[in-house]
């Protein structure tokens, strides 16, 4: 076995010399590639397809400003004139990484974090760090109400007539459910031995790994992950710009952005014409490189007109162009002032952006002036293709839908409060009883669907019958029917 491995490695080293000399690879990355081309060839080929494998930071810095994909004004001397290879990413900031370990003569980090990426992309990391995405773990974990919702959804529950006991959801269950998207805490518990084709090796034992949630807490203390959108090891801007990437998490029934988009006129054009679009060009020319918006076009891409005039600046704070929060908990409301929403308290002292009656916690939310500024940014994107009248009418229609769906949620909330007063449900945990589940559906599924479908244009079935208004109306009647039924039952 060892003899065969030696032959394989010899052939890999021989074969690698030619391709390794085509680009200015560092000696350290060349060593990584010599082994990993044999044992993880998919990773190597993915990286070879990337811009990182063909471009040095020095070359990237020479690009005209709008074409530049690197926001650093300078990078460490040792990194400037070699391509961004295995060692250049996995050996950064080793002293800060609890997951740093000795690996065949090199000190390597298992997890590449946004703080590492900030060596070349500091502006992108800074923008992302202030977003709700970067705080997604804490916004869920540090909010007792949201945590109660998570525990009410996942894990085994005790049911009448069964032998299944009530269990807390395991770390693995959480890791594959809500925290798969929100991110989890990566904790290094020491070293462990794993078997590989080269024998047993010692690697960091990282709790909750693998995880690529957007708000992941990393072993170097940083927040977030770049790879949910720019997957390793190609780190492709093309993949990040395509709606399928956002569809990893933004799906019906609670966040139906992808489903609504696929049914919309914009989605129809994308699904029909995407093969003709240029998803790699920077800056992205509206009407030339693409002819209908994707999620990235509306929310964060650098957009220019065909003659190069800037329509929207690039941002990695995905809420920077948003003025209203469609994903209402429980109602729509102005966007939070910062990414950490766990600090929000409403007038009743609850960790929610509105009261149960819909009064917004305005001191934690952006003001009217900031709302107007952000809406103007989004309107400028829309006006790249649509007339002013069309855009204004669209947003008037959308705000009407937000107001009316909030009213339907308020009606459901008042029914639930009545049920609590009558002792038909226990308000201590507002998420764990059948009547409360109907209330959750009212705003989390049906209200959200109608709002997303209205905001993203041209998905009328989602507004009307596919969840949307049909769900809001029938669900409200079901809540009322259940309350009437229980109050009509004979008292024991």
Overview of the molecule:
The protein is mainly alpha-helical and 492 residues long. It folds into 2 domains: 2-115, no CATH class; 237-488, Up-down Bundle (Hydroxylamine Oxidoreductase, Chain A, domain 2), CATH 1.20.850.10. 45% of the residues lie in helices and 8% in strands. It has 22 helices and 9 strands. It has helices at 2-20, 27-39, 41-48, 57-61, 77-80, 86-90, 114-117, 122-129, 136-141, 144-153, 171-176, 178-182, 237-241, 243-246, 257-263, 265-273, 295-299, 368-382, 388-421, 434-455, 460-464, 468-488, and strands at residues 100-103, 106-109, 187-196, 199-207, 284-285, 303-304, 310-312, 324-325, 333-334. Helix 2 crosses helix 3, helix 15 packs across helix 16 (265-273) and helix 20 packs antiparallel against helix 22. The longest helix has 34 residues, at 388-421. The termini are far apart.
Strand content: 5-15%
| Low-pLDDT segments | 1-21
Shape: globular
Structural class from helices and strands?
A: mainly alpha
Q: Measured on Cα atoms, how large is the radius of gyration? A: 26 Å
CATH architecture of the largest domain: Up-down Bundle
Total discrete domains: 2
How far the N terminus sits from the C terminus, by CA atoms, comes to 76 Å
* Count of extended strands: 9
Any idea of the CATH topology of the largest domain? Hydroxylamine Oxidoreductase, Chain A, domain 2
What is the tally of helical segments?
Answer: 22
Overall pLDDT confidence: 91
């Amino acid at each position: 076995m060892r003899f065969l491995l030696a032959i394989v490695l010899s052939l890999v080293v021989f074969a690698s010399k030619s391709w390794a000399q085509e680009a200015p690879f560092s000696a350290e990355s060349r060593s990584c590639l010599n082994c990993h081309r044999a044992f993880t060839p998919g990773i190597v080929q993915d990286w070879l397809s990337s811009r990182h494998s063909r471009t040095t930071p020095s070359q990237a810095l020479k690009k005209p400003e709008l074409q530049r994909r690197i926001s650093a004004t300078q990078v460490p001397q040792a990194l400037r004139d070699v391509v961004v290879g295995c060692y250049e990413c996995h050996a950064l900031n080793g002293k800060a990484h609890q997951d740093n370990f000795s690996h065949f003569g090199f000190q390597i980090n298992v997890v590449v974090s946004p703080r590492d990426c900030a060596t070349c992309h500091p502006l992108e990391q800074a923008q992302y760090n202030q977003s709700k995405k970067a705080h997604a773990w804490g916004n869920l974990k540090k909010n007792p109400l949201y945590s109660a919702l998570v525990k009410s959804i996942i894990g085994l529950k005790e049911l009448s007539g069964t032998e299944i006991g009530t269990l807390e959801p395991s770390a693995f269950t959480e890791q594959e459910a809500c925290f798969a998207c929100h991110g989890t805490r990566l904790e290094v518990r020491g070293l462990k031995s794993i078997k590989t084709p080269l024998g047993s090796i010692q690697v960091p034992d990282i709790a909750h790994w693998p995880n690529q949630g957007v708000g992941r807490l990393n072993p170097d203390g940083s927040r977030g992950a770049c790879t949910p959108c720019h997957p390793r090891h190609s780190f492709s801007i093309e993949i990040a710009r395509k709606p399928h990437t956002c569809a990893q998490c933004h799906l019906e029934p609670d966040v139906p952005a992808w489903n609504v988009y696929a049914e919309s006129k914009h989605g129809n054009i994308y699904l029909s014409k995407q093969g003709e679009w240029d998803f790699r060009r920077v800056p992205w020319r509206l009407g030339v490189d693409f002819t209908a918006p994707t999620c990235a076009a509306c929310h964060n891409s650098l957009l220019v007109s065909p003659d190069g005039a800037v329509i929207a600046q690039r941002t990695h704070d995905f809420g920077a162009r948003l003025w209203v929060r469609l994903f209402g908990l429980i109602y729509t409301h102005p966007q939070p002032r910062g990414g950490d929403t766990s600090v929000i308290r409403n007038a009743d002292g609850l960790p929610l952006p509105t009261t149960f009656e819909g009064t917004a916690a305005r001191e934690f939310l952006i003001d009217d002036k900031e709302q107007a500024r952000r809406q103007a940014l989004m309107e400028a994107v829309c006006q790249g293709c649509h007339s002013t009248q069309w855009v204004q009418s669209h947003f008037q229609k959308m705000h009407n839908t937000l107001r009316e769906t909030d009213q339907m949620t308020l009606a459901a909330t008042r029914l639930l409060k009545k049920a609590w007063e009558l002792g038909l449900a226990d308000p201590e945990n507002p998420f764990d009883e059948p009547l409360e589940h109907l209330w959750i559906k009212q705003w989390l599924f049906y209200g959200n669907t109608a709002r997303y479908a209205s905001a993203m244009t041209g998905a009328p079935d989602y507004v009307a019958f596919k969840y949307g208004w049909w769900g809001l109306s029938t669900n409200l009647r079901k809540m009322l029917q259940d309350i009437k039924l229980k109050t009509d039952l004979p008292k024991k």
